[in-house]
Amino acid sequence: MAAHKASKTNSAAELARNWQLEGGVGFLLRLLEARYDGLYQSMTQQSDITPRQFGVLMALYQVGPLTPSVLADRISCDRNTLSEMLKRMAERRLVSKKSNPDDRRSLQVQITAKGEEALLSVVPAAAELQNIMLAPLRKEDRAHFLKCLLAIAKAAPPESASDS
After folding, report:
1. What does the alpha-carbon distance between residue 119 and residue 58 come to, in Å, rounded to a whole number?
2. Of 3, 66, 70, 114, which has the fewest CB atoms closer than 10 Å, so is most exposed?
């Protein structure tokens, strides 16, 4: 048992010595997120709608009223986080909740006129931000890069990760 533990420690130490931080997915994603968040704030010139709230408003604008469960799936957000976000957005009157005509036991969330106005004021900057973020890539590589990011983001967790 002790020999196995020592071998594992040596293996981890070797991995750590040879690790390329700039090649690490987590490190690069944090850099990308920090760059995106900073540019989002400076380019949209407002702090009313966070990038995640932008996704909520965009989904509701494009699709129409949705149940929180369907909305959570659509924007890949856990239901508890979405519930808190919707509460804050409803307080600011960006979204409203109404009973679901298809199932009275559930609610539907819809974008309000104020939410639509806020969303549409941010859309041009968000489109420009997309162009700026992708600018370092050749035009022919951009769609592939986005497809790869989506594949990683939507991949099911490995069996060992979901068992812990």
Report:
1. 7
2. 3
